[in-house]
């Protein structure tokens, strides 16, 4: 029988290539959700987080990610998305729409901006108009969607699964 030794706070794995994934967040209602998203992004090797609205990280939740992430604040996300598209990012929204792709079957481009919507309103029509693709996470029970931080973590994990070395 295999024996396991508990290794707490193991050093992070080295990425062969820097991640070309960034997160762009619509104004979130909860700084707790934003802080959880930042922490997960840090664990995934994401180095850039774009926020709009009154974004403020809780350092107790975001922990070390607040030190490793480049956090940009903007008034509106639409001009940022236009700029990212000009920089050859594929803009992928995380939302339930009529033409969303199932996260389990979506193949991310290595250079992706994952666009996250507001907890209540999701991604607005003006943001959806800028996107190259929209992904959603299947739900098998109620409520009809995952919490924004939980859904973001699931999408981040899938990206990392597809690009484990960066």
UniProtKB/TrEMBL annotation:
GO terms for molecular function: RNA binding; tRNA (guanine(18)-2'-O)-methyltransferase activity. Pfam families: SpoU_methylase. SUPFAM superfamilies: alpha/beta knot (SSF75217). GO terms for biological process: tRNA methylation. It comes from the Bacteria. It is an enzyme of class 2 (transferase). The keyword Methyltransferase applies. This is tRNA (Guanosine(18)-2'-O)-methyltransferase.
């Amino acid at each position: 029988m295999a024996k396991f030794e508990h290794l707490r706070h193991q050093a992070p794995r080295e990425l062969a290539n820097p991640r070309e994934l960034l997160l762009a967040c619509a104004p979130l209602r909860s700084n707790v959700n934003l802080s959880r998203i930042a922490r997960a992004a840090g664990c995934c090797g994401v180095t850039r987080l774009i926020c709009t609205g009154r974004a403020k990280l809780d350092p107790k939740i975001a922990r070390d990610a607040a030190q490793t992430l480049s956090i940009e604040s903007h008034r509106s996300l639409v001009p940022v998305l236009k700029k990212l598209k000009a920089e050859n990012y594929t803009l992928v929204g995380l939302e339930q729409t009529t033409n969303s792709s199932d996260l389990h079957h979506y193949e991310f481009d290595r250079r992706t901006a994952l666009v996250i919507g507001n907890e209540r309103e999701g991604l607005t029509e003006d943001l959806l108009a800028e996107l190259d693709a929209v992904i959603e996470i299947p739900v098998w029970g109620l409520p009809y969607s995952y919490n924004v931080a939980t859904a973001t973590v699931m999408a981040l994990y899938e990206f990392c699964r597809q690009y484990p070395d960066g």
